[in-house]
Write a structure and sequence with these properties.
By secondary structure, the chain is mainly alpha-helical. It has four helices and no strands.
Length: 90
């Protein structure tokens, strides 16, 4: 891979390497949701509070964070594909 692409933040030609932060974030969120689901089932008195907080966070995240995250991951994927195509030509 060329030095210019490495200096711009592209670690390698692998899409998984370049999107590792997003994959880690998705895994963490899923783990948190599983934990909250178990707490809701076990502790009935916290069910409504947890449900309200989850709905509030869902509204905030869907339109701001999700769109931003998807556009950044798409851009990173495009750059990684370009780097692979460029490396094949050399």
């Amino acid at each position: 891979m060329s030095g210019n692409l490495e200096s711009s933040g592209i670690k390698s030609g692998s899409i998984a390497d370049n999107l590792s932060v997003y994959l880690l974030a998705v895994g963490s969120v899923l783990l948190l949701l599983i934990i909250l689901y178990v707490v809701m089932k076990v502790a009935k008195k916290y069910k409504e509070k947890i449900k309200e907080k989850l709905l509030e966070q869902k509204k905030k995240f869907i339109y701001n964070g999700l769109i931003r995250s998807l556009s950044l991951s798409y851009l990173s994927t495009c750059i990684a594909v370009y780097a692979n195509i460029y490396a094949m030509r050399e």
